[in-house]
Design brief:
Order of helices and strands: HH
Keywords: Signal
Structural class: mainly alpha
Number of helices: 2
Radius of gyration: 24 Å
Largest sheet: none
């Protein structure tokens, strides 16, 4: 049981140490919009009009 507690403490300590070493994300002066679109394939006929308009709206 003591061995299990020490392993748990070690894992917790490593997790806390690892979380402190993660680099923070730097925000750019732009905003990212993920764009899901159908431009090729069998769904292209229905997707190009809608998503083309959405691209124009974002610009």
């Amino acid at each position: 049981m003591k061995h299990r507690k020490s392993l748990l403490r070690l894992a917790l300590g490593l997790a806390l140490l690892g979380s402190g070493l993660v680099a923070t994300a730097q925000a750019a002066n732009e905003q990212y919009f993920p764009l899901q679109s159908y431009r090729v394939g069998p769904y292209a006929a229905g997707g190009t009009g809608f998503f083309g308009g959405f691209i124009d709206y974002l610009q």
